[in-house]
Write a structure and sequence with these properties.
The chain is built from 19 helices and 6 strands. It is mainly alpha-helical. The chain folds into 4 domains: 181 residues, Lysozyme (Orthogonal Bundle); 67 residues, no CATH class; 47 residues, Roll (Membrane-bound Lytic Murein Transglycosylase D, Chain A), CATH 3.10.350.10; 45 residues, Roll (Membrane-bound Lytic Murein Transglycosylase D, Chain A). The longest helix has 19 residues.
Length: 457
């Protein structure tokens, strides 16, 4: 009974409290409201603007935090992508910005040409920064997998772009030829895939592989494929890394990255140079001297040549200053001029082209090309060979005749000795020691017996 009276009393208290409280509207927050101050119309408007501004500030990040959304690099991408943000943070660090500035300094001689080719093929301008992640703008860069040059071409991908590699040159190291090829390749990737991010992915991993992934999954949305991790890990990082760096370098000044644009003589416009097709074997140093061209400049213009020497009987595009074109053509046309520096070597008994090639750091084929009519199998003693002077080495001395070892010493055999052990002691072949003493190499030696051995000096 007591329990029943307690429940009735509690119900009455709750009902009385509810009657005293004001009813709440559907939208009014459950908080105690302070009395509103009396303000003028002007003050009210100012207060309202302040509230709106605060709301916008809460909804949108500050400009410094949202720089990645404010500049268009010509390739749409989700700015909240975790991989992109990781690389963005990495390369906007003090160290990252210094590194980017140094790499862009490497690329200064080639950027003008790259920009023109990009415009010619209609690519987004930001692609001029792709060599930053490919090679650090180093024309001699070579990866572990063998990719070489500014744009990191593999040997198996250069055929469609007329880039050649042989014992005389590697045209992947030519920044102008490889730029032409790279821009073409990117444009072809885009034409097939219809998406610049996928075109980038295909540049990294191959058009065939990316095309198969797109076809299998029925989408050319790179970010969807990335989200589902249907691409290689390297490619999943490659595209956002490029986009982050492109975003930063497009706004280099805003990030405090100084990029030099002034050109020196050897970094001038490509229009100031011309290409002369030639099949003559020529040393760039000789051409520079005869045509009065700066040696450093002509080397800069022909970085594909391994030794600074054009190959014989192979068409090569020699790049020279336009002002020197006529003079160089005149020099090339003069068949009486020897345009390659050679070592001259007179063949002696027991010489071989292999030994000569090894000594002078050239290939056998190079020697054969420089000496038409000779045969590697039948060298003529007394004939003089011309050997390309690719390195400064001393004259080849030829093979030394093997000196017969004189066994003029005597060794008294002691306990435990063998011919094998004695051959090491006297620094001779065990077979030679055994033959000299009319014994088998594994013969048991009698203590106290005498053996003929070389005299140790």
């Amino acid at each position: 009974m007591k329990k029943l009276f307690f429940l009735l009393f509690l119900s009455l208290c709750v009902f009385a409290f509810a009657q005293e409280a004001e009813p709440l509207s559907d939208t009014e927050p459950v908080i105690e409201k302070a009395a509103e101050p009396v303000v003028s119309d002007e003050s009210a408007a100012e207060t309202e603007n302040t509230v709106v501004a605060e709301q916008v500030a809460q909804e949108q990040p500050a400009e410094e935090e949202n720089l990645i959304l404010l500049s268009d690099i010509g390739i749409p991408f989700p700015a909240d992508n975790a991989r992109f943000l990781r690389f963005y943070e990495q390369y906007t660090s003090d160290y990252g910005k210094k590194w980017l500035a140094a790499v862009m300094e490497n690329g200064k001689p080639y950027r003008s040409y790259i920009q023109k080719k990009i415009a010619e093929y209609g690519l987004p301008e930001c692609f001029e920064f792709l060599p930053v992640i490919e090679s650090n703008f180093n024309i001699n860069a070579t990866s572990k997998s063998g990719a070489t040059g500014l744009w990191q071409f593999m040997k198996n991908s250069i055929a469609p772009y007329n880039i050649r590699v042989n014992e005389w040159f590697d045209e992947r190291r030519d920044p102008w030829l490889s730029t032409d090829a790279a821009i073409r390749k990117l444009k072809e990737n885009y034409d097939v895939l219809g998406d610049w991010c996928l075109a980038l992915a295909a540049y990294n991993t191959g058009l065939g592989g990316i095309s198969r992934i797109v076809k299998k999954n029925g989408t050319n949305d790179y970010w969807l494929l990335s989200e589902k991790k249907l691409l290689k890990t390297e490619t999943l990082n490659y595209v956002p890394k490029f986009l982050a760096i492109a975003q930063i370098l497009t706004n280099a000044e805003k990030y405090g990255i100084l990029i030099q644009t002034e050109e020196t003589e050897e970094e001038a416009e490509p229009e100031q140079y011309t290409v002369i097709k030639t099949t003559r074997n020529m040393d760039l140093g000789v051409i520079a001297e005869l045509a009065e061209i700066d040696n450093k400049l002509i080397s800069f213009l022909n970085p594909a040549l391994f030794y600074g020497v054009t190959p014989p009987d192979i068409s090569y595009g020699l790049r020279v200053p336009a002002a020197a074109k006529d003079k160089v053509n005149e020099i090339i046309a003069d068949k009486n001029l020897l345009l390659v520096k050679y070592h001259r070597y007179k063949i002696k008994s027991r010489d071989t082209l292999y030994a000569l090639a090894k000594h002078y750091s050239v290939s056998v084929d190079m020697i054969l090309q420089a000496n038409p009519g000779i045969s590697a199998e039948t060298l003529q003693i007394g004939k003089t060979l011309l050997i390309p002077a690719l390195k400064d080495v001393s004259p080849y001395a030829g093979k030394k005749n093997a000196e017969k070892i004189a066994y003029e010493g005597v060794h008294i055999v002691e306990q435990g000795e063998t011919l094998w052990g004695l051959s090491l002691k006297y620094n001779v072949q065990v077979e030679s020691l055994a033959e000299e003493n009319n014994m088998d190499v594994n013969a048991i030696l009698r203590i106290g017996s005498k053996l003929k051995v070389p005299i140790i000096k």
